[in-house]
Amino acid sequence: MVVNRKLIVVADDLGIGFETDRGIIELACKGVVSATVLLVNSPTARQAVAAWLKAGKPCDLGWHPCLTLDKPILAPEQVPSLVDRNGDFWKLNTFLTRWMFGLISQVDVYQEWCAQLTAFREMTGVNPVLINTHQHVGILAPFANILVQILESLPVKPWVRRVVESQKTINMISGARLKRWFLCSYGKVQAKALDYHKFPGAKTMIGLTDPYCLKNDRFFDECLQSGWGDIVELMCHPGYVDTSLIGRDVTEYGDGLTRRQWELGILGNPQFLNDAAACNYQIVRPSSCMGSGRLAC
What we know:
With 297 residues, the chain is of the alpha/beta class. The protein has one domain: TIM Barrel (Alpha-Beta Barrel), CATH 3.20.20.370. The protein is built from ten helices and eight strands. The chain has helices spanning 18-29, 45-54, 92-100, 106-124, 143-151, 167-172, 177-196, 219-226, 259-268, 270-278; strands spanning 5-14, 35-38, 60-63, 130-131, 159-160, 204-206, 231-236, 281-283. The strands form two sheets. Strands 1, 2, 3, 6, 7 and 8 form a six-stranded parallel β-sheet that branches. The longest helix has 20 residues, at 177-196. The radius of gyration is 18 Å and the shape is globular. The model is unreliable at 292-297 (pLDDT under 50).
């Protein structure tokens, strides 16, 4: 067994809604969440940054580049391939269809992500410590290369998520295997590019699943047991029930609206920290692991 392993617990989607933000910041203050990433194009992004600052910066703060939620930072006419007739980003399924048919402009993606990075700097006053893209669209070609091009301009290379699961994780966690196979297939290609450009990040990640699996209050314990390597990133989406997400991120029916509360409950239970300790993990911020690339820890 690997001892003294490092666990980076990253809560995605800060800024998506007040109740989600409240849950993320509460877990950060408890020492469970060690980093979160900001959706700068969400309507409540600035309030989320203010809440993070008021809490005393309890975790690292990064950028969550987005192409599939709410409106772009740029005017719709500046990024026409990315938006519908209402000026909103295409929803994920439509975005993927348009991507497969070559209808998403690389120039539009580059310009919008540059605008989002500028917005992050204006809101926070700093460069992002870590990066991962909303709904993992940044692992797809050619968006992965665009993201590397943008991040290469930063004075310090940020921590970048590798969407790669170990075989042990795939064997142990049964949920959403087709989706996870698709993501990891592209994630492995992106990981090689990130390694080549020497961006720090964990070798593998855990936490990919479907809402059904989260009804098991031992889900994250199973994830922890399946983690491989001396440093592992745990992706999570905790939060209180947030009705502002209906029609934006989830539908009114189904498990999408409550899954964040399920994650909040599991991660907020003291048992989670006990499980992490039992698996020889120390929860740390990504900023503490950025000395020399992927194996900094």
